[in-house]
Amino acid sequence: MRRRTLFAAAPILLAAACTSAPPPLPPIAVFFTADSATLEPEALEVVAGAAQRAKATTGPVLVLGFAGPAGGVAYNVALSEARAQQVSDQLVRNGVARERIRIIPRGPVPFESIATESRRVEIRIDG
């Protein structure tokens, strides 16, 4: 009798284990022009959408800044931080609590398949 009870509970335990951790959401990319930390109108729309998604969760919001490899390392680290700060500030303006946001400047990265892909900020929302 005891075995039957254990096997009857197994599907419930398995279902609970599978639903406890949702899969991570894919990062949202915000792109910039060369040597700029200015959010263009299209980027503002992307950040607004990310803010809506972030407000639907309770987890942390990571804002990772990137820059291309052209120019000095110190310049590109500062540029990647400025880009991440602009996105963070815009997320706050769109209703995301500042204490949920963590800025991580990544600095220069090699050009990817398209040069503009290196000039980006990634927003990662853990939910």
From TrEMBL:
Alphabetized Gene3D superfamilies for the sequence: OmpA-like domain
Localization of this protein: Cell outer membrane
Residue intervals of the OmpA-like domain: 19-127
Superkingdom to which the source organism belongs: Bacteria
Position of the signal peptide: 1-21
Bilayer-crossing regions: none
Matches recorded under SUPFAM superfamilies: OmpA-like
CDD domains in the record: OmpA_C-like
Gene Ontology, cellular component aspect: cell outer membrane
Keywords assigned by UniProt, alphabetized: Cell outer membrane, Membrane, Signal
Stated name of the protein: OmpA-like domain-containing protein
Protein species of origin: Neoroseomonas lacus
Lineage, broadest ranks: Bacteria, Pseudomonadati, Pseudomonadota, Alphaproteobacteria, Acetobacterales
